[in-house]
Amino acid sequence: MKNSNDFNFVAPFYDFLAKTIFGKTIQTAQTHFLNRIPKDANILILGGGSGWILKEIFAIRNECQIHYVETSKKMIALSKKRLSKVQLEKVIFMHELDRTSNQIFDVIITNFFLDVFEKKEIENMIKLLRGLLSEDGIWLFTDFKNRNIWWQKILLKLMFTFFRLFANLESKQLYDFDELFDACGMTSLKSKSFFHKMIVSHVYRKR
User: Are 57 and 64 in contact (CB under 8 A)?
Assistant: First the structure.
């Protein structure tokens, strides 16, 4: 049986597909708050995809250390190809998060990651990651937001259907992330909307 949330099949054309639908907005949203990353930060990235964001981070914070969690082996292979030898030495690639680790991170990044899970798993994941975040650390989050606009609802429906078919997506709908983060003790310091407010980026901190 195929594993849930398996993006190996779509890995070679995932970025192209995103650009075809959203243009540069997906990347613009994910990089909007990268300047908030402090120097020498210890960073945890979950669901990093093909790794293009690693180049963006190193361009402004080349002294940082990164733990990069991505279940797709093909996505990790693509990510490694983007980096220089020096940059590769600063990234630890993992296929799953070690939930028993006591390591604390200055920055956590989840871009279009939580939307692949059902609500209970999202709640558990937020609680887990909150515990891995330092007291003054920041959580950079970018994802879709359901504005109940007819064409956005259709687009979201098509996307969820596509990824259920080709990536065995676990989730069947988009949840209210504002509500879920708030319930888990996280406060949004800054936010920015994109693509007719269908995409939103937040800088979260522990409340």
Answer: yes
pLDDT digits (tens, 9 = 90+) for 79-99: 999 999 999 999 999 999 987
Alpha carbon of residue 11 to chain centroid: 15
Residues near 186 by Cβ (< 8 Å), separated by ≥ 6?
126, 130, 139, 204, 205, 206, 207
List Cβ neighbours of 197 (8 Å cut-off, separation of 6 or more).
145, 147
68 pairs with which residues across the strands? 45, 93
First CA to last CA distance, the chain: 41
DSSP codes, 152-168: HHHHHHHHHHHHHHHH-
Six-digit token string for 182: 């708030």
Chain segment 154-197, per-residue pLDDT in tens: 999 999 999 989 888 899 899 999 999 999 999 999 999 999 99
Ordered domains of the chain (ranges, CATH): 11-206 (3.40.50.150)
Q: Using CA atoms, how far apart are residues 161 and 27, in angstroms rounded to an integer?
A: 23
Q: In three state form, how does the secondary structure of 92-129 look?
A: EEECCCCCCCCCCEEEEEEECCHHHCCHHHHHHHHHHH
What sign for the dihedral angle of Cα 114, 1, 6, 90? positive
For tokens 């983060």, name the residue. 181
Helices (H) and strands (E) in the chain, counts: 8, 7
